[in-house]
Amino acid sequence: MSLIITFFWLPALNFALNFSNTFTRFMKWSQFFTSVVGRKIVMALTGFFLISFLLVHVGLNSTIFNDLSWFDKNDNGSMFNRAAHFMGASLVIRIMEFGLFAGFILHIIQGYAITIKNRKLRGTGYKKSLGERGSKWYSRSMAILGTLIFLFLIMHVSHFWVPSRITHNLQPVTYNNIETHNLFIKMYETFQQPLIVILYVLGVIALAYHLFHGFHSAFRSMGVHNKKYLRLLTIFGYGFTIMIAILFSLMPISMYFDWVGPN
Question: How do residues 95-104 score in pLDDT, each as one tens digit?
Fold first, then answer.
């Protein structure tokens, strides 16, 4: 958590505070949210927030791997279920979930707004495609990748968040006289379906390509233009993205092949 605060949020908040003081002298806040620069800054800040969420989410979900034989083959999802219960029972976390949904929605809306604005500015575009010399294909396809991720999120929320937060139609399990939802069993049952596993892996691939461009682009939007720093941020972003993608992909794959699962 300290890494998240130090690396992402302290620089971002410092920039946002300095920018707001300068910005309010020249432009109203209503104009800010409809300006190109304002939209990009909102995209960057919500992007940092969502990256922070990814770190927490992948860390919590990775506790399913404690069930592997070289860790604790008798864990049977205990660590994961207890961690999920802690997150679901905490009032602060529940409140933050609404902020998370708001962050997703704002990120999506501003992303589409920027894409539409850029297409209008470009008009018919170049007569000859620049291909890789202009920009990477995933940089030019952020809206498409974002749409695929959004569809993936709808599926993901319906599989796990709705049953655990709204319908509560999950098997119960008790640890230290405390009854919790057995999300571990829910995950295992969900990932026994080959099509679901394939869709999840494809969703993670879309997320990875989205992050390949979005990670360093967010820092550019926040005013980082030094080539040395941008190169380091790009390398770090690739490493972060690959780590996230591998861990998230291994979750459905490991359960489908019974590397992880109930005893």
Answer: 888 888 888 8
Question: Among 147-156, 217-226, 239-248, which is the least confidently predicted range?
Answer: 217-226
Q: Where exactly are the structural domains of the chain? A: 2-20+31-117+140-256
Beta bridge pairs of residue 175:
178
Per-residue pLDDT band for 113 (boundaries 50, 70, 90) equals confident
Buried b (16+ CB within 10 A) or exposed e, 94-123: eeeeeebeebbebbbebbebbeeeeeeeee
pTM of structure: 0.78
254 close to 189: Cβ distance less than 8 angstroms: no
Instruction: List helix spans (H) across 90-226.
Output: 91-122, 137-140, 142-156, 162, 183-190, 194-221
Residue 159, token pair as written in the block = 């599989």
Whether the Cβ atoms of residue 46 and residue 222 lie closer than 8 Å to each other: no
How far, in Å, are 143, 197, 244 from residue 194 at the CA level? 27, 5, 21
Give DSSP secondary structure letters for 71-87: HHTT-TTHHHHHHHHHH
Q: Determine the Cα–Cα distance for residues 164 and 21; give it in Å rounded to an integer.
A: 43
